[in-house]
């Protein structure tokens, strides 16, 4: 037999306690599969996503009409993971999915890695071959614990039926506590079919796992002192603040200190865009004012943020004059990329609730610093360098709409409570820049991993959450690209059969837009393998008008899946299509917006460059000192 991975060997050891020297006989007798379903019910899990297969069939056999949770059947295992992510972000609860062994489990690696990067709480239950078959290269055997070891928060290999309730309880707790993340429970068929005695609640024994939620020591007073000494502070707010439900606390901190707020991509919406303290997103495609605030500040307060390269640009040139307060629940993030002057480990909402009174006491004694010159500088940048776009001088025949205009119209015409979901690419950045976010937890996107194909299944998960928590009164709009959408378009079947209607806007430019943008800027306009030919005019008809060959034809594709399909070439058609989509709530609606393929996302900081090199438009670098030349070398550029 092959040697198991160290984690398998550890997780596979049956847990015995001082009072567990013999088989437990208290409780109801049932199979391990039945115990799994019962444990999820007892945890209060209300929605599960998945796809059956041979090694997990005992569990699916235990799911029936009397099961208390709703099961959503997807068409691909990866979609189950992304749907669980969308559900978790929309509701704040743990997303749960159940898939089979081998390829079913390996198809889950991408959403597991995605959830790990974006701190999304998931419990991923995978089937596994029987204990005696492990290591024999049995049919559909894969060491999923070993394969996912680098990208999970924790993993279990369950070999005994009796361990299932405890493991599920632990996995659910670990996923949602501390820094949220994905937990894998690899369930052998031996454990599923074995008999056990079920009892609840379970006693969790997690030595060494004690997430810190409250700040310790003098760090709060130290942080308050830095605020008192700062005349150019900025609150750099990341996804961790969203996961902590710290919207109110962040807004209050900005109000009492006068500090501007800049956000990362996952934190969009944590404070409404109409809050005057909110400068928007910073970094590679952020606003000039937000990026300038970070570059020129004397105090950088990182709140649930991890100093990602898309935010910092060239790391040693990021916020070069700033002292740093770093608040994060994960101690591993403190000092990982930037050494803080005041490190604060704890839950963001809890820490801010304790820090705000400390700052108020400090202000009562010493007053507030005068931030007017700071705000005058930032407001001037905000007014001069707005997020806007230019109409192309020579509109090509492959698209008659500006994609940015489409996003603006979607935002203007949407219900204020809309949950926005995106795929990955140019459309993702335009959505983050141009949607008018009004509420927290209204933005779901793949940030750290940048997973194309994330959008549709995540929107399905968000719609399940909306139906569960808000009676479906929060509509879900997906803004996707034609390339990203095609990676998981089969989930249109899920939206129809599982009654999870979403509204889909495809910005169809017939190319991999973001890749093409980089090819334009850094690779001599060599458009190698980025033309999708899914809406192009391939030849001229006799009358001289272009003939379009749609492969796929997104309207027909939508209709084939029982959805409503529409197409828009003109602004009038676009507005009418959006109006109709907003009125249809019983079926999924897909709008194929034909947009200009050469539109670009601005502002932009090239990978490897300093944020001071941000380009507002070609030839305009507003943060670069006058007379200073230089730009990122091509060799430094990359995704």
TrEMBL record:
Main EC class the enzyme belongs to: transferase
Segments forming domain Thiamine pyrophosphate enzyme TPP-binding: 423-592
CC terms in the record's Gene Ontology section: acetolactate synthase complex
Biased composition (Low complexity): 627-639
Pathway: Amino-acid biosynthesis; L-isoleucine biosynthesis; L-isoleucine from 2-oxobutanoate: step 1/4; Amino-acid biosynthesis; L-valine biosynthesis; L-valine from pyruvate: step 1/4
GO molecular function, one term: thiamine pyrophosphate binding
Textual note on the cofactor: Binds 1 thiamine pyrophosphate per subunit.
Pfam families in the record: TPP_enzyme_C, TPP_enzyme_M, TPP_enzyme_N
UniProt record, GO biological process: isoleucine biosynthetic process; L-valine biosynthetic process
Enzyme Commission no: 2.2.1.6
Domain Thiamine pyrophosphate enzyme N-terminal TPP-binding residue range list: 30-145
Domain of life: Bacteria
Domain Thiamine pyrophosphate enzyme central: 221-355
Catalyzed reactions: 2 pyruvate + H(+) = (2S)-2-acetolactate + CO2
Record CDD domains: TPP_AHAS (cd02015), TPP_PYR_POX_like (cd07035)
Entries under PANTHER family matching the protein: ACETOLACTATE SYNTHASE CATALYTIC SUBUNIT, MITOCHONDRIAL, THIAMINE PYROPHOSPHATE ENZYMES
Family assignment from sequence similarity: Belongs to the TPP enzyme family.
Protein name in the entry: Acetolactate synthase
Originating organism: Bifidobacterium biavatii DSM 23969
């Amino acid at each position: 037999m092959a040697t198991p991975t160290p984690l398998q060997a550890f997780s596979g050891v049956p847990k015995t306690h001082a009072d567990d020297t013999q088989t437990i006989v208290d409780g109801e007798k049932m199979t391990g599969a039945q115990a799994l379903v019962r444990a999820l019910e007892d945890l209060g899990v209300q929605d599960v996503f998945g796809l059956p297969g041979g090694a997990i069939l005992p569990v699916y056999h235990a799911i029936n009409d009397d099961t208390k949770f709703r099961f959503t059947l997807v068409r691909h295992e990866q979609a189950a993971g992304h749907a669980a992510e969308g559900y978790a972000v929309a509701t704040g609860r743990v997303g749960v999915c159940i898939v089979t062994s081998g390829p079913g489990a390996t198809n889950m690696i991408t959403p597991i890695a995605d959830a790990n990067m974006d701190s999304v709480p998931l419990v991923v239950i995978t089937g596994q071959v029987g204990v005696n078959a492990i290591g024999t290269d049995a049919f559909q055997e894969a060491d999923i614990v070993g394969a996912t070891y680098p990208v999970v928060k924790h993993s279990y290999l369950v070999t005994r039926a009796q361990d299932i309730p405890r493991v599920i309880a632990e996995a659910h707790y670990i996923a949602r506590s501390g820094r949220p993340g994905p937990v894998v429970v690899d369930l052998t068929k031996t454990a599923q079919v074995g008999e056990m005695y079920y009892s609840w609640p379970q006693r969790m024994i997690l030595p060494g796992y004690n997430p810190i939620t409250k700040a310790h020591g003098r760090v709060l007073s130290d942080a308050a002192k830095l605020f008192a000494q700062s005349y150019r502070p900025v609150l750099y707010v990341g996804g961790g603040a969203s996961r902590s439900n710290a919207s109110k606390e962040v807004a209050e901190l900005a109000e009492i200190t006068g500090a501007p707020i800049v956000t990362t991509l996952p934190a969009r919406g944590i404070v409404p865009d109409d809050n005057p303290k909110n400068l928007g997103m910073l970094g590679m495609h952020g606003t000039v004012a937000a990026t300038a605030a970070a570059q020129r500040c004397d105090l950088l307060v990182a709140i649930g943020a991890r100093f990602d390269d898309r935010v910092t640009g060239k790391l040693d040139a990021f916020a070069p004059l700033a002292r740093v307060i770093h608040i994060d629940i994960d101690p591993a993030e403190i000092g990982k990329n930037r050494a803080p002057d005041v490190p604060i480990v704890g839950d963001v909402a809890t820490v801010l609730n304790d820090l705000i009174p400390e700052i108020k006491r400090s202000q009562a004694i010493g007053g507030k610093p005068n931030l007017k010159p700071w705000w005058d500088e930032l407001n001037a940048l905000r007014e001069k360098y707005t997020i806007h776009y230019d109409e192309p001088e020579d509109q090509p025949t492959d698209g008659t709409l500006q994609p940015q205009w489409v996003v603006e119209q979607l935002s203007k015409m949407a219900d204020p409570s809309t949950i926005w979901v995106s795929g990955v690419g140019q459309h993702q950045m335009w959505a983050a820049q141009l949607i008018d976010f009004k509420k927290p937890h209204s933005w779901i996107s793949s940030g750290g991993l940048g997973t194309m194909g994330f959008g549709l299944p995540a929107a399905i998960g968000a719609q399940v959450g909306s139906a569960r928590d808000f009676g479906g009164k929060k509509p879900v709009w997906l803004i996707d690209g034609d390339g990203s959408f095609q990676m998981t378009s089969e989930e249109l079947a899920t939206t129809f059969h599982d009654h999870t209607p979403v509204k889909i806007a495809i910005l169809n430019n017939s190319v991999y837009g973001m890749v093409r943008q980089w090819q334009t800027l850094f690779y001599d306009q060599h458009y190698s393998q980025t033309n999708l030919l899914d809406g192009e005019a391939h030849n001229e008809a006799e009358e001289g008008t272009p003939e379009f060959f749609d492969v796929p034809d997104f309207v027909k594709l939508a209709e084939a899946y029982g959805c409503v399909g529409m197409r828009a070439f003109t602004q009038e058609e676009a507005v009418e299509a959006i109006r109709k989509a907003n009125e249809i709530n019983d079926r999924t609606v897909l709008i194929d917006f034909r947009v200009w393929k050469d539109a670009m996302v601005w502002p932009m900081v090239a990978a490897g460059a300093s944020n001071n090199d941000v380009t507002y438009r070609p030839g305009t670098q507003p943060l670069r000192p006058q007379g200073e030349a230089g730009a990122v070398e091509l060799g430094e550029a990359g995704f």
